[in-house]
Amino acid sequence: MTLEKLTIKIESEKDKFNDKFKVLFNPNQVEIVKTGWTMQQYGPVASKELTQLSLDLFFDTTLMGFPPENVQNYTRKIFSLTQPRIGTNPKRPPRCQLIWGTISGKDSVLLPDGFLESVTKKLTHFLEDGTPVRATLSCTFKEWKEPKKKAKILNPIDDPVRIVKRGETLSSIATEEYGDPSLWRVIAVENKLNNPRILNPGTVLTIPPLRITNLSQKE
Fold first, then answer.
1. d(Cα 45, Cα 67) in Å, to the nearest integer?
2. Single pTM value for the model
3. 161-217, CATH topology level
4. Which pLDDT tens digit goes with each residue over 144-153?
């Protein structure tokens, strides 16, 4: 009986995992890290850390026929999981699912929903012309959960303010304040910004609480 290969399902568009590919060789081991509790000053509390999954993937095109092809034709499929291409303003890398075999006729899921957090490539064998034909990828995946939007308390007297830091954009501020980057226009309108793309460090912004009328200002 042929051993089932590890399958990586990839998010092709938002929340739809239509793409997939199987690894060339199964990993020898999989490490899963989950923190249950963390110690605080007043005692242990349930950890909010998400599950982390690590594994090494081996690639060797000398075992796949002659002449062997460039192994990076295969490793780039893994590296592509780190490239932003899903959504808008800003784009993000695709989420993925890791499935290995079946249990009672159902997929055996190692990672139900997550991102490729990091990947390290080692090229370990080359042809005489320098073509790499063997590689190992050390991959770390991180569990993903839908972020909770931060609720703003409606205060009719005084809206909160914040000072812009270097590198911040209206989209990043909207993500932090409202949990939705597309609500940057709410901040721009409130502060009468003529050019929202120019945001100088030190600028004082009023961050209004979300009202029903604000939601019509989403992109």
1. 57
2. 0.64
3. Membrane-bound Lytic Murein Transglycosylase D; Chain A (3.10.350)
4. 987 654 444 4
